[in-house]
Structure formats: C-alpha cells, structure tokens
Amino acid sequence: MKSRMALVLAVGAGLFAALVVLFYLRARESTLLEQAALQDVVVATRDILANTAIDERVVELSKVPKKYVQPGAISTMADAVGRVASVPLPTGSQVSGTALQEGGREALAFEIPRGMRAVTIAISDVTGVAGLVRAGNFVDLVGIFEYGAPSGSVGGQITYNQERTETLTIAQNVQVVAVGRDFAGKQAPPRQAADAEADAEAQAASEAAAEETPVQNLTLLVSPAQVQEIVLAQHIGNLSVSLRSNLDAGQIVELSRLDPLTMLKVQTPVPLKPKAQPSWREYRGSQP
Known about the structure:
Layout: H1 2-36, E1 38-44, E2 59-65, E3 84-85, E4 100-101, E5 117-122, E6 138-154, E7 157-179, E8 182-183, H2 196-212, E9 217-222, H3 224-236, E10 238-243, H4 260-264, H5 280-285
Antiparallel strand pairs: 1-2, 3-4, 5-9, 6-7, 6-10, 7-8, 7-9
C-alpha cells in the first residue's frame, strides 16, 4: 500500500516537473523568436557627413533582428529621404530620428532639386520688374548685346566694323528661388507667444526697411548648361527679367533675335542710346 502511494507521488512529481520544464521552454522559445524577428531599419550605405542632405543614394532599407534595433531608428525611407544629417553617420549605422533635422530650413542647397543649379544675376529697379518679383515666381531672361568685327585700333581702343545691337531671349520659364537673401524655404526662428506683440512690431519695421532697400539680385533655378549661358551673357551684355503670369507656367514662345533696324523697319543703322534713368534712391527721394 505504501509502495503504491510512493509510486503515485513520484509519478505526480515527475509530471509536474515536466510541465514546469515545458512552460519554461515555451516561454524561452517565444522570447528568442521575438528577439530574432526581423524589423525594417534605414541604414547608411556610405559615410554621411554632418549637414548633408539624405537621398536614396546614401541610405537603404535593411532587415535587422528586433533585439539589435537601436532606439529611435527610422523604419521607412520616406522618413529619412529629404532630411539632413545633423551628425556624421558611418557606413552601416542605423539612421535615427535624433540624428536628422528637417531640410530646407537653413540653407538654399536643400531647396535645389537634383541635377539643377542656382545662379544669381544682378538687377536694378528697371531690369528687375521694379522689385515685384518674389521667390517662386517664373521669369524670362532677355539680354541686349553689342558686337562687331574688329577692324583696328585708335588711341589704344579697338575699333569695329559691322557693329550690331541685338536683343535675345536667353531662357524662358525660369523659376526664381531667391530674391536677395530671402528664399521660399527660409523659416524664421521659433518665438514665444508672450513676445508676439513685440515680434509683430519688429516685423513691421523690418518690412518697412525692406521697402526702402532695393533688391540687387535674383537667384534662378536652371540647368548646368544654362548656368554657362547666363554667366557669359551677364558678362558681355545687359540682362533684364520679365515676370511671367502664373497662367503661363511651362509655356514656351518661339522668339527670334531683334535688332533696331528690324524693329524700326529702317535701313539706316541706329545707335543704341538708352535714356538715362534716375537711380532708385533718387526716384524715391523725389516722391512727396
């Protein structure tokens, strides 16, 4: 009788121990599987320097065991591309949200699309549409050029034959990305609500001062080939911009060269003698 009872107790203890081991193994298996589960993480495919814009060429999506995913790691390409590295990121490192900042807030370079260039031209109140051009507008570039065939020199000055003056539209539908030092992506620093009234007064004073200061240059978004043309045209001639209507976006008009003889429909050469214009400050000073 006692031996039978001892056998029952032994069997029960063995079953209990087996259940404990089974539950432990299942819990351990679940933990290991959870740690081994793969998770999408954005990693650097090359060394990324600080203040570098992130694009598809320098990062990729990789699967990493959940156990090894770093805190704050970004899991989608959309959350990384277009932002800027605030710290250096070595090859193979996981890209975290704390290592990136929003692009386009501090530098114009973040606003320039891949393959395009920004080039600046000098303007005045006359050649720059009276300062009415704004960042984001589209303009046409028109140049006036004087040229001829060298024929000799007089008093150290080169003389020319067949002198001609022509106007030519160099580029159409060109986007303005900056007016002076102001560009579309530039943002003001954050401010406290308590300072809103003072900020409003400061902004009004700043706008009034801006109205008194003429814009001296425009920065345009163009192709690399157009950069060469615009830089050369600005060196050898005089450039003006014409402001396009928003309704004409993308429209290209076929225009030929224009010279004084063609415009006036005469045969006698007409020297170009533009009427002297008062400076912007003189003009403003003459107003009541």
